[in-house]
């Protein structure tokens, strides 16, 4: 009676590498489509102005990119939402045909790329922290500088990596994607072929730093107002151009100096970001990867603040502990997707609550500062009145 079960298990296990292979092939297809969409978003605007063609070849290339992106999406496994994605690309093709404005086409292309990433759970952010821009500089000098110049200045057909508005249109992930020869055709295998994922993320940061060289760091209160952008995945997936101008420049600087920004990242925000990555991995069938991210979230994000949370709210701490344990058990046992994902979301809600409690809001802090200022002013006024009265009294005497 046991044999059929053992055979079934063995059969399932023997298929596992096949599934894994299929998953990576799908990841590659989705990454290629995302890469083409990012080029449409950035390059189309240089080919058309006010409905007039500025560069016919570049314009045709964008049309071709859209056709290719559609073909790639059609190769991906069908699921609810893919049809909307396909019709979105159809509308993008129509917008290009109508010669809509660069901005309109950029928005459409980026929107489709984000929808694609959500639908196919693309991992667009590194699990480990990003290094400083200088780490990959020797590699950059060795591999990239002969075409891109020592400081990214480029020349001829090679784009200027210091061009702020162009660089603002790419996310860090877009740079990373460019450096994968199985995804992007810009560079040959000889240039990028043997780079591993960490080297590519490090080079993405090196590239991002060129546009903000010699610029002063943004004010610290911006980091408090936009906590999602000083950490992962926000820093890796956000395109600065989509942000209000004050924070756009800040993100440009932050992603070029991630090692300096790390201290601004709230550990609980790091835990939430890693849980988001763990969720993506779990949905994609990568249980081991999800477990690794879960443990990183626990160690790097939650554990350092455990005592602080306890001081603020002991009940919340015990809820958090129970939820971490539950999730760990479920992930280890390979529980069904829906169960694990619901637990992850519960945990993220609890973490967000803990963060709210630990961090007094900026508004609250401001009120406090105002109160001190008003008190000081009142005191100064009182003292000067008292001093004036005393002098008058003395003069009368
Ligand atoms: C043989 C010359 C050459 C080498 C070497 C080279 N690149 Fe490029 N790179 C190019 C060209 C040309 C483009 C533009 C292609 C296009 O837009 O069609 C480009 C595009 C890029 C882009 C996209 C930027 C944009 O504005 O479109 C990035 C990022 C980039 N390269 C980074 C690197 C890095 C990092 C290395 C080293 C690992 C490297 N490149 C090596 C020639 C080169």
UniProtKB/TrEMBL annotation:
Signal sequence coordinates: 1-20
Residues spanning the membrane: 368-389
Superkingdom, natural source: Bacteria
Keyword annotations: Membrane, Signal, Transmembrane, Transmembrane helix
Entry annotated with the keyword Membrane: yes
Protein name listed in UniProt: High-affinity iron transporter
Taxonomic path: Bacteria, Pseudomonadati, Pseudomonadota, Gammaproteobacteria, Cellvibrionales
């Amino acid at each position: 009676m046991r044999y059929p079960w053992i055979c079934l298990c063995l059969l399932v296990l023997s298929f596992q590498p096949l599934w894994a292979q299929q998953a990576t092939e799908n990841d590659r297809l989705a990454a290629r489509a995302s890469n083409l969409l990012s080029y449409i978003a950035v390059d189309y605007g240089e080919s058309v102005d006010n409905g007039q063609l500025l560069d016919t070849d570049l314009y045709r290339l964008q049309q071709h990119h859209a056709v290719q992106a559609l073909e790639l999406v059609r190769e991906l496994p069908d699921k609810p939402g893919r049809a909307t994605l396909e019709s979105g690309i159809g509308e993008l093709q129509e917008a290009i045909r109508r010669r809509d404005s660069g901005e309109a086409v950029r928005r459409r292309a980026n929107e489709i790329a984000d929808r694609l990433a959500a639908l196919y759970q693309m991992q667009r952010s590194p699990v480990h922290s990003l290094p400083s821009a200088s780490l990959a500089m020797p590699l950059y000098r060795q591999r990239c500088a002969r075409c891109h110049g020592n400081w990214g200045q480029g020349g001829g057909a090679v784009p200027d990596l210091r061009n702020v508005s162009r660089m603002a249109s790419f996310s860090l992930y877009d740079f990373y994607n460019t450096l994968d020869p199985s995804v992007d055709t810009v560079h040959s295998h000889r240039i990028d072929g043997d780079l591993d994922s960490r080297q590519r993320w490090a080079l993405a940061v090196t590239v991002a730093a060129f546009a903000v060289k010699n610029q002063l760091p943004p004010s610290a209160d911006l980091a408090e107002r936009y906590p999602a952008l000083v950490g992962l995945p926000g820093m890796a997936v956000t395109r600065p151009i989509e942000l209000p101008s004050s924070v756009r420049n800040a993100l440009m600087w932050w992603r070029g100096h991630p090692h300096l920004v790390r201290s601004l990242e709230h550990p609980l925000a790091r835990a939430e970001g890693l849980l988001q990555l763990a969720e993506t991995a779990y949905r994609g069938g990568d249980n081991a990867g999800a477990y690794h991210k879960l443990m990183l979230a626990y160690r790097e994000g939650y554990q350092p603040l455990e005592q602080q949370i306890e001081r603020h709210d002991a009940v919340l701490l015990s809820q958090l502990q129970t939820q971490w344990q539950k999730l760990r058990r479920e992930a280890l046992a390979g529980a069904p997707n829906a169960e694990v994902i619901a637990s992850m979301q519960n945990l993220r809600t609890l973490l967000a609550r803990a963060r709210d409690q630990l961090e007094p809001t900026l508004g609250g802090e401001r009120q406090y500062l105002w109160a001190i200022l008003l008190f000081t002013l009142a005191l100064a006024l009182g003292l000067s009145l008292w001093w004036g009265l005393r002098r008058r009294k003395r003069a009368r005497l």
